[in-house]
Automatic annotation (TrEMBL):
Residue intervals of the Aminoacyl-tRNA synthetase class I anticodon-binding domain: 434-525
Organism: Methanobrevibacter thaueri
InterPro entries reported in the protein's UniProt record: aa-tRNA-synth_I_cd-bd, aa-tRNA-synth_I_codon-bd_sub2, aa_tRNA-synth_I_cd-bd_sf, Lys-tRNA-ligase, Rossmann-like_a/b/a_fold
Pfam family, one: tRNA-synt_1f
GO-annotated biological processes: lysyl-tRNA aminoacylation
Keyword tags: Aminoacyl-tRNA synthetase, ATP-binding, Cytoplasm, Ligase, Nucleotide-binding, Protein biosynthesis
Positions with a binding annotation for ATP: 275
Gene3D superfamilies membership: 1.10.10.350, 1.10.10.770, HUPs
Span(s) of short sequence motif 'HIGH' region: 28-36
Name of the protein in its database record: Lysine--tRNA ligase
Length: 527
């Protein structure tokens, strides 16, 4: 059993091609998120695997920055609707911080590509038109317009008009590209009319226009020699963009359609990601809560057409636990749930690992750090001590002291704690948050039974040196059973006395993480 990324690479390796070009593209219509940038990660993964197999391969990314703005993206003001229909490349930067609209939304993505180990050549659709890269393909499309119309009409309910041309000029009057209709040409001169009432002519060599999408996509494949391209499922629908562009590519441009890798959309907390509605989660945001490898893992752990829902809230803790387990199984730090799962974990981590052969990263359990940080504050050494006391360090680190960590391990540790801090501040629900009330005993009511439980628990902790949370947990239950007190009431008493609230983290582990003398005195209400 091989991973689906490897299966794609195996299929491509069978082809008689000097160099594989895995292409991806993104419409720069607003903030770029983990949904519409998915093809970049998939393309990179396939290219990386091909190179590991000894094949020559490169990945490219095309910014579709010459397309028309169809919706005002979040968080731009409604006043930006005056730019609707204009190419992204000709819209000003909303904050005046970048050269234009495109750079404003493109820059955050490009700034983290190195962090994700993405090796790609970035291209601009706008620049390609301005540089004349499409000129010959525009001419061919105009000359073969009847054949192109015939292909389009096979997939349409209503046939295209007799004077239709597969090209949209940018209107000289209103600046829009999706409201123009090209109806005639003479050499490189296109005649058009616009919904704004303007009629004009345009020279294709000016770059002030663009091919119809499905023709443009086919032309692009030949321009770059594309052999494989991941894309969203909308393009993969029967009779959709890929089907039509494949026929155009072969019949009009004499080029075989690339190997398709369609993928399912990613939802955010069950809601479709939308740049116009502000529902999205960006790759640069991911790095604030998790390591780069974890996003690769999220995207690659299941087949591309399987539905994926992401939540940076409480479900993220389950996800990052799973990622940590996969990573630790790969490095033989922990046992896999089964032999089959072990093979699966190692196979996928090999795909997502950014630096093959690199040593085990020091990433203590995220979920445990959520509590340890709230107890110790931003003190890495103190947190490390809590990790050791609670047996949270795997075999390669359990006998180490804080001062034994290498510079790389310390940086990884710092990054993980920073991820936890950001997650707590930004996505954690209130019930996860707590603060140890160190200065004074909270004045919350307790029953006589709860008071007795706390007193007995104080004696237990004072007279024993617990090093394992499970042992303390079992001993606590013995006291509860002996007193006939419900566990919920007992644990509530602990949280009330130490946190000033009715709930908190797992009690045994929590108590082991605190200073022993403080715990004993607080349970006795002495300090």
């Amino acid at each position: 059993m091989t991973h689906w990324i490897e299966n794609v690479a195996i299929e491509l390796a069978k082809r008689d091609t000097e160099e594989h070009v895995i292409a991806s593209g993104t419409s720069i219509s607003g903030s770029i998120h983990i949904g519409n940038s998915c093809d970049i990660f998939v393309a990179n993964g396939i290219g990386k695997k091909l190179r590991e197999m000894g094949k020559k391969a490169k990945t490219i990314w095309i910014a579709d920055d010459h397309d028309p703005l169809r919706k005002v993206p979040y968080p731009l003001p409604e006043s930006y609707d005056k730019y609707l229909g204009m190419p992204y490349s000709m819209i000003p930067c909303p904050d005046g911080c970048c050269a234009n609209f495109v750079e404003h939304f493109e820059k955050p993505l490009l700034s983290v590509m190195d962090d994700y180990g993405i090796e790609m050549e970035a291209k601009s659709g706008f620049e390609m038109y301005k540089n004349g890269d499409y000129n010959d393909y525009i001419r061919t499309s105009l000359e073969k317009v009847d054949e192109i119309k015939e292909i389009f009409n096979q997939y349409r309910r209503e046939p295209l008009a007799d004077d239709w041309l597969p090209y949209n000029p940018i209107c000289d009057e209103c600046g829009r590209v999706n409201t123009t209709y090209a109806y005639d040409y003479d050499g490189d001169i296109i005649k058009y009319r616009c919904e704004c009432g303007h009629e004009g002519e345009m020279d294709i060599k000016s770059g002030n226009g663009k091919l119809t999408w499905r023709v443009e996509w086919a032309a692009r494949w030949k321009i770059f020699g594309t052999t494989c391209e991941p894309f969203g499922k909308d393009h993969a629908a029967s009779g959709g963009s890929y089907d039509v562009s494949s026929v155009i590519s072969e019949k009009i441009f004499d080029y075989p359609a690339p190997y398709p890798v369609p993928y399912e959309w990613i939802t955010l907390d069950g809601e479709a990601m939308s740049k116009s509605h502000g529902v999205f989660f960006a790759p640069e945001e991911w790095l604030k809560i998790g390591p780069a490898e974890s996003l690769h893992y999220y995207l690659f752990r299941s087949k591309p057409m399987k539905a994926k829902d992401f939540s940076p809230k409480m479900p993220f803790l389950d996800f990052i636990d799973q990622f940590d387990t996969v990573e630790k199984v790969f490095y033989d730090e922990v046992e896999a749930p089964s032999e089959k799962e072990g093979r699966k974990f190692k196979e996928i981590y090999e795909i997502v690992q950014m630096e093959p052969g690199s040593p085990l990263p020091f990433r203590p359990p995220f979920r445990f750090l959520v509590n340890a940080y709230q107890i110790a504050g931003d003190d890495l050494e103190k947190i490390f001590d809590i990790l050791k006391r609670n047996s949270q360090l795997t075999k390669s680190f359990k006998d180490k002291e804080f001062g034994d960590l290498t510079e790389t391990e310390l940086a990884q540790y710092r990054e993980r704690v920073d991820n936890v801090i950001y997650w707590l501040d930004t996505y954690a629900p209130n019930f996860v948050k707590f603060k140890v009330q160190e200065k004074s005993v909270p004045k919350l009511p307790l029953t006589p039974e709860q008071d007795q439980f706390l007193a007995d628990l104080a004696d237990l902790i004072e007279n024993n040196d617990f090093t394992d949370a499970t042992e303390l947990h079992d001993a606590m239950y013995e006291i509860l059973e002996a007193q006939g007190l419900k566990p919920q009431k007992g644990f509530q008493a602990i949280y009330k006395m130490i946190l000033g609230q009715k709930q908190g983290p797992r009690a045994a582990s929590f108590l082991l993480s605190l200073d022993k003398d403080f715990v004993v005195k607080r349970l006795r209400k002495e300090a």
